[in-house]
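USER:
Try writing one entry.

ASSISTANT:
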Amino acid sequence: MAATKFLGKDLRYRNRDWLYARYIDEQMTTQEIGRLIGAGHSTIGEWLIIHGIPRRLGKAVYATDRSREKRFGKRNPHWRGGEYRNGDGRVYIFQPDHPGSWVTGYVARARLMMENKLGRYLRNNEDVHHINHIVDDDDPENLMVLSRSKHSSLHAKERSARRSVQLSCQP
């Protein structure tokens, strides 16, 4: 068994069985687990992902707080039909049962379109690239699945190419 302490830090969250027991069996929140062992809730969340432990929806975390549960999804007074656009124009759809949904229950529409086209869920390390760079054009013919690293390097090369064109156009 791996050490549970390193340089005075409690590392029990790195043990899948221990973390599963706290999060799933005991229904502790990531904040509660973090306080228990002196780690941040985001660290606990990352280790839930690493261990493949399914995340609970926000309403499950607050199941004892009925006022918050009533305002989730369609019961929320700010409900706008389960679709919204973020600041850069990407469209998100309310799909709380989707394995890739955020805690809020939303999934990128482009991701849903590609999953439908491929007939499978995308992996956590797969991104959807918009070929024409129009982020709200979620036509399956305009979408391409890339690994996260390939997607990042593609955009880096495109930025570099744009910079060199701009520099060559300057007097």
In short: Helices lie at 16-25, 30-37, 41-51, 58-61, 66-70, 109-118, 148-169.
